[in-house]
Amino acid sequence: MSEFDLIRTFFRDIGPQRADVALGVGDDCALLNVPAGQHLAVSIDTLSAGVHFLPNCDPAAIGHKALAVGLSDLAAMGAQPAWSTLALTLPTADTAWIERFSAGFTALSNTHGIRLVGGDTTRGPLSVTVQAHGLIPAGAAIRRDGARPGDLIFVSGTLGDAALALRGLLAGESVDPMLRHRLDFPTPRVALGLALRGLATAMIDLSDGLAGDLDHILTASGVGAELALKQLPLSPLVAEAVAKTGDWSLPLSCGDDYELCFCIPADRADDVQALMPDCPFRRVGRIQTERGLICRLPDGGVFIGGGYDHFAICA
Ligand code: ADP
Ligand code: MG
Asked: If we measure between CA atoms, which residue out of 277, 246, 140, 244 comes closest to residue 200?
């Protein structure tokens, strides 16, 4: 298949048709209508083979995850997904692989009403870059710099599942299917992000681990925080792993959770509990004036640990 046949067959019609797409895949540029009074929220992420996914990973999972990480960024601002673009670098034109990749990308696109409007297809080491575009009323975005002392800190879903799955895979062990699903098919918390407009003072999505990602909120907002580790939402298998080793790095600093961490003024705690989002969330701590992040252990001690850093030297 030629490059153009591949594009026509697998990438021309992904996601629902949208009235705000004046021109989609097929020309030099896509033409998109941003409604008056709305901001265009834009985020881009690359997944590289061997860095972000294992070489033998299910192509449908790669297609899903490449879009999911962008949708998670949109969710973390309270943006409504609208359009995506996709830059795909492939070692060979393996149509069976591309078909499965496209199916994973398409299923998640349909779930969130996001339309693929353009991209680029080249030959080289396997790498996938997705740009996610969303819409948000001007002034309504939930940024990292709005947390204030006294705000309550919440986290959605559960933490550490993907990291525990990856640890098992790298050790050549059989991995629990629920954990494996959390690693390969993360769920971007789009509905929760939208529901938090006008309520959350600051928000971030958890891609590098709660400790490091929350620290971005703290730095941007000029505040500190205390987390109560016994409050962290953990699946039974992660809770067991933490209990066995006393090591909290799975939920705190390993990443790939794609949950939301958000801050709420204490006097609006009832409003947040009344939300009916697409996933549960739990209160895990509080913003304070003193800088720094304190992770309080169940026994009252303090856990020291950081986020995942691609350029740090990791064991
Ligand atoms: P150009 O040479 O002008 O960059 P291309 O030949 O790269 O155009 O792409 C032709 C059309 O196909 C463009 O509209 C581009 O946006 C689209 N396209 C290319 N690759 C992809 C892809 N992987 N997914 C979606 N659209 C793509
Ligand atoms: Mg091109």
From this structure: 140
Provide the CATH topology of domain 152-303: Phosphoribosyl-aminoimidazole Synthetase; Chain A, domain 2 (3.90.650)
Which of 11-15, 77-81, 139-143, 243-247 shows the lowest mean pLDDT across its residues?
243-247
Cα 210 to Cα 207, 253, 262, distances in angstroms: 8, 6, 11
Q: Which whole number is the average pLDDT over 204-230?
A: 97
Candidates 30, 38, 134; CA nearest to 82 is 134
Exposure string of 58-96, with b = 16+ CB inside 10 Å and e = fewer, is bbbbbbbbbbbbbbbbbbbbbbbbbbbbbbbbbeeeeee
Residues 3-137: name the CATH superfamily: PurM-like, N-terminal domain (3.30.1330.10)
* C-beta neighbour count of 42 within 10 angstroms: 15
- CA separation for the pair 148, 219 (Å, rounded): 12
DSSP classification of residue 53: B
Asked if pLDDT for residue 50 goes beyond 90, the answer is no
How many angstroms separate the alpha carbon of residue 116 from the centre of ligand 1?
Answer: 11
Task: Please state the atom number of ligand 1 nearest to the C-alpha of residue 24.
Answer: 14
Structure tokens at 26: 């097929």
Question: Phi/psi of residue 266, each to 5°?
Answer: -55, -35
Q: Is 118 in the pocket of ligand 1 (CB under 6 A)?
A: yes
Where are the domains positioned within the chain? 3-137, 152-303
Ligand 1 atom at minimal distance to the Cα of residue 118: 16
